[in-house]
Amino acid sequence: MSHFLDLKDFTKPQLRKMLSEAASRKKARAKFAKGEPDKDQPLKGKAIALIFERPSTRTRFSFEMGIRQLGGEVFTVSGAEMQLGRGETVADTARVVSRYVDGVMIRSKAHETLMEFAGAATIPVINGLTNETHPCQVMADVLTLEENKGDVSKLKTAWIGDGNNVCGSWIEAVGVLGGALRIATPQILRPHPEFLQWAEQMKADVQVMTSAVEAVAGADCVVADTWLSMHDPEEEKTRRHNLLRPYQVNEALMARAAKGALFMHCLPAHRNEEVTDGVFDSAQSVVFDEAENRVHTQKAILLHCFGK
Ligand code: CP
To answer: Is the CB of 300 under 6 A from ligand 1?
Structure first.
């Protein structure tokens, strides 16, 4: 039994195997209807629960469809509908749920909840986003980047904006897979120091700076995210927007990146805040491929977790 909690838990060959599995499964499905099952059914007889303490569009749809394509049973519940919302401990919930289903994907408010759930569960647990990381998203990002630009270990990615949970998983991806990451963010929104200390230990080519122009120089890919994440309090909105306005990814900033650089965003996007319509809707933007690739990469993650 294997969990999928954070990218830093894996070796490069393990992540490469998942990315390769995702790419070949995507290719094999090129002419399939979306609801059509895969030729093989490696999750036949398996039931997987999706638990959401936060809202979701992509994570919910992509896991539900991916599990169905692999032949598994899937159902979705919100944390508020469960006794979790009424004080049953996370560990007891994990022990109980482990008696009913074969695997769980959980989107938790706090990273500690994910870790407590995984620590008590006797079935595979997948991180569907916490306040600290979003590894499923970044696996889809890496697949999308490699489809367009080749091996991530030879590429430079620029992260522009809040040093948030997706940025945390990007640091871990570069630490394990290689490549260069330049993070442009206001001093106050830098990634947690633990991510940067870990990157240093891994001798990862990760640098944090305040200048977006400096970060995108020579970048093969420019990544943005919302200025206010799901776990940030609404009262923070004005302060964050003021801090992050100079970090908008617009046509002028993209022109400073390498020729033909990609634009990526995990979505949902706030158009004309963190990214202009001109960039979001341009030929350089691969945001909807990223969203699609959630299905393919998560299928590979599920197969890893179930030892298939
Ligand atoms: N990118 C992402 O995780 O989207 P959702 O919040 O819609 O799942």
So the answer is: no
Which residue of the set 3, 25, 107, 182 is catalytic?
107
pLDDT, averaged across the chain: 96
- Looking at the DSSP bridge assignments, the partners of residue 75 are 49
- In the structure encoding, which two tokens stand for residue 244, read together? 């992050």
Tokens of 120: 């008590």
296: Cβ contacts below 8 Å, ≥ 6 apart:
22, 23, 25, 26, 29, 66, 140, 143
Rounded to whole angstroms, what are the CA distances from 160 to 20, 40, 212, 299?
Answer: 28, 40, 6, 29
Distance 203 CA to ligand 1 centre (A): 30
Backbone torsions φ then ψ of 263, nearest 5 degrees: -110, 130
Neighbour order of strands in the sheet with 47-52 = 73-78, 47-52, 103-107, 125-127
Over residues 165-180, the pLDDT tens digits come to: 999 999 999 999 999 9
- Ligand 1 binding pocket includes 62 (Cβ within 6 Å): no
3-class secondary structure, 184? strand
Q: For ligand 1, atom 2, which residue shows the shortest CA distance? A: 58
Complete edge-to-edge strand list for the sheet that includes strand 262-265: 205-209, 180-184, 156-160, 221-224, 262-265
In this prediction, residue 79 carries a pLDDT of 86
Asked if pLDDT for residue 121 goes beyond 90, the answer is yes
pLDDT at 280: 98
* 221 annotated active-site: no
pLDDT tens track for 88-117: 999 999 999 999 999 999 999 999 999 999
Residue 121's nearest CA partner among 106, 136, 110, 139 is 106
266 CA closest ligand 1 atom index: 1
188 burial via Cβ count (<10 Å: 0-12, 13-18, 19+): exposed
Verify whether ligand 1 is closer than 6 Å to residue 266 (CB atom). yes
